[in-house]
Amino acid sequence: MSGKIVEILIAKDKKSVMQNVNEAVLEAGKGIFGDRYYDKDEEPQNEITLIEKEKVDSFNNEFNLTLQYSDFRRNIVISNCDLNTLVNKEFYIGNVLLKGLELCEPCESLADKTSKDILTGLENKAGLRACILKDGNISLSSQLEVS
After folding, report:
1. pTM of this prediction?
2. What residue ranges define each of the domains in the chain, with the CATH number in brackets?
3. Per-residue model confidence as pLDDT tens digits over 80-114
4. Nearest 5°: CA angle at 134, between 36 and 15?
5. FRET pair for 109, CA 20 to 30 Å: which of 13, 91, 120, 125?
6. Banded model confidence at residue 120, pLDDT cuts 50, 70, 90
7. Nearest to 70, CA basis, from 119, 33, 35, 25
């Protein structure tokens, strides 16, 4: 399975707007350098989050919305990859080794910022929480490959 990065997003703090970046430094046990959760949380599931482009596009179409990928507050937007199959599996983005930990379900806070429809419309479709096992850099040209 191979996926392509569509966007890399970080926010300086929980209330900041997610910003697109062309590349990012990922550090094991810390997260994405410059992101709101970087080295601030001892919970590995907060190191990095991913969401599928196709799931966001489908949600927008189904509910007649125009939400941006950044509105979903995930770090990596990926295309052509079924993220649900990566729970408890190791995978690479570029040279960075990650492990899928759990699905990243939509929450009330996200629904308040976007649409209440997100709670049911993206159940089991809102992305993946992962931890970083090996440091490295990623860019928009990086591919996701299952190890």
Report:
1. 0.90
2. 2-138 (2.40.33.20)
3. 999 999 999 999 999 999 999 999 887 666 666 66
4. 10
5. 91
6. confident
7. 35
